[in-house]
Amino acid sequence: MMLPIFLPAIIVGLGFVAVYGNAGYINTLLQWLHLQPIQFLYSPAAIIASHCWYNIPLAYIAIRLRLHNVGYGIIDNAKVCGASSWNILRTITWPRIKRTVAGVSSIIMLYAAMSFALPLVLGGSKYQTIEVTIYRTLTQQYDIATATTLAIMQFIVLALILLSALWFSRKSSVIEQRSSVLAKHTPAWWLRIVRILFAAFILAPIIAIALKSLPLSNYSELFITSFPATLGRTLLIALIASVTGVTLSTTLVLSTRSNWKWWPIAILALSPVTLGLAWRLWLDQSLPITVIAYCALIMPIAITLIATQWNAQPKHILETLTVLGANRWQQYKTSLTLLRSSIIQATALIWIFVLGDIAIASILTPSQQPLAMQFSYRLMSNYRLSLAATGMTTLLLIMTLGVSILFIIKYHYEPRTT
Description:
mainly alpha, MetI-like fold, 2 domains
């Protein structure tokens, strides 16, 4: 259920093309059955379906966690008293989950408004979101004034959506919590069918990409192109951005007494395309500027992760170390040990984001020096879907390997209870 949340959007877009495209698996099957092919891609339906693919798991997890606190004894008592399912939903369940539903809806709206890769791939030239419009206005029409105006308007709207999400989240957190175990109910037959269909909907694009990349000849063909150079460039940028972003975030958290509660989250109203536009207008295109943009975009989340764990530590810990005679370096090493878990999480997050990004890379990297995901998108644009799937699968495997190594290190150093 969590898998869609962590997949780069451009990979999901390729998966939808492989499944629902004119020459995709579904149309191939329909033609084999002598049925009329479907025209699904490059339509609002395709964009909406792809965002549902991404965001339904997020909504499901948030609402299910909230339902753990409803108190199923109340529901069972209501059933015994003869209450209908509709009345139980209206008077018991809904009042307890409505703020969670509103909050997660605001977050999904924020994600969808900042979406770039999915509308770029699945919307075609006819159906563009504001992110794609800003990008094309800047890179194809070279109309900086219009692109800047659109970016400012988008930032204002996203800031309002973000404030709504924070308000609903705060209101939801103050509702009385009940600790209870979910009752084991046998789902109805129609619900089982819905679950099977949803699982097929989630797995189809992933399986399609895997099938497209299966022939080993694809890898030999891919690695005689410029892909190895773009891959090496991407890995170097991801490594520099991860080390720099985490180091700066940790230093900021440890060097100030601020609780870092609001402003890192507020910066999330800046979409990747808007941030890339700002850096390009200020310092133009280059690989070092790309690294700086990645750090600026991901550091708010890294600061939030690290600050949350730091605030959970015993108060006055640094003062205690000073009294015990520890110098600044020893204090810093001890702090890093205490923050190891959140530092690894932040590093993994930056690693995934840089390897899977196409928005900032498309705006800030010189056209002669593309990154790996950007290069894979060019292959897809040239209808070389198998090579594009092979390149994206390679990146996905590298992401998984890097994150696995980080979490192996995390669990290796975690204290063990006897």
